[in-house]
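Please produce the structure of this protein holding flavin mononucleotide.
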Amino acid sequence: MELKQAIESRTSVRVYKKDPVPLEDLKEMIRLASLAPSVANSQPWTFVIVTNKPLLEDMARKVVRQLENIPENESRAAKNIKSQVEWFATFFQDAPALIAVAMERYESVLEKGVAMDHDEVNRIRNYPDFQSAGACIQNMLLAAVDMGYGACWLSAPMMAKDTLEKMLGLEEKFKLTAFVAVGKPENIPVKMPPRDVKEFIRIIQ
Ligand SMILES: Cc1cc2nc3c(=O)[nH]c(=O)nc-3n(C[C@H](O)[C@H](O)[C@H](O)COP(=O)(O)O)c2cc1C
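Below is the modeled complex.
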């Protein structure tokens, strides 16, 4: 598939056929993801492939519990909003495969020479660790499309990040960043019409 075609046809797929995704395909998606640029070529990522259904369901239960613990505001829509978010945060439990993306903390050169702590330097550098993760996850999504799969990037389950990190057996130095759910699409969702590029390009010559 041409790159432009993969970019143009990619859409978030959240409902999948039951067919398992071969491990070799998941590893290939990760290999391609890991070719993304990263700050100072730190390649700070690690990935956990989960295809174990009871574990996925248990992880989803932990996300629900965390969501329940977040106090609602006074709005009448509050309950409804929570139940919508619940689905978008837990549908991964029905995916044939989940790739958890975790990142090691990036220590910039600047940090070694200034009187600022890691978080402050990261903030003034505009979170290069998260920017690197974004590049890597987008590569993964495009690789999935190219290989005939549907995928969806999920950050909502991260509300239960600390618990999920333990369940995934992540080493202390890795912080869970996002999930990518993968499977053969049950149907191809209609792609929302994109905004007109004219709306968001400004040229300074
Ligand atoms: C950083 C990020 C976090 C996202 N988190 C979720 C999520 O938790 N659950 C979900 O269903 N979709 C999630 N998405 C998918 C977006 O909702 C989706 O990309 C967006 O609606 C545009 O649709 P498209 O991907 O089909 O073009 C996330 C996307 C990004 C980039």
